[in-house]
Amino acid sequence: MRQKTATDTVAAVPKGCTNLKLRQLSRAVTRHYDAYVAPTGLKNTQYSLLSHVVLLGPLKPSELAARMRVDASTLTRNLQPLVAQGWVTQGPGEDARSRLVEATQAGRDKRAEAQRAWKQAQLALNARLGDERIVALHQLIDDCMAVLDAADDEEEL
What we know:
With 157 residues, the chain is mainly alpha-helical. The protein is built from 7 helices and 2 strands, in the order H-H-H-H-H-E-E-H-H. The protein has a two-stranded antiparallel sheet. It comes from Piscinibacter terrae.
């Protein structure tokens, strides 16, 4: 039986910048998905936005921004190309000051086309990284988001 050494008991110490590492991973994954989704005429971020509108709409831009975890100005900027293509409309809301975002039939059709490409990207990424690693990554991300959300909620009090 092997004796424990000092290096066996030393806790892991983070090295490097977490933000940099996450951004590097995000860029690599974005490139992967974009390669599959781009032939549909959408960027991966536009596919995500269009999917949210199709699945949740019609809804207020502020509700959409909250669900997607983006600020209002980012949402407005990202909606513009979808509106210009006729895939999304921004119509009147419940009162004169509100608006509702809704997918058009062309937007639903575009989302269905892009969803097939997205599915291929998802399967290819799962195959490349392995299901076990993907499940662990999702769990780690969910856990981190829960901790960060709880900290944000405490700061608001």
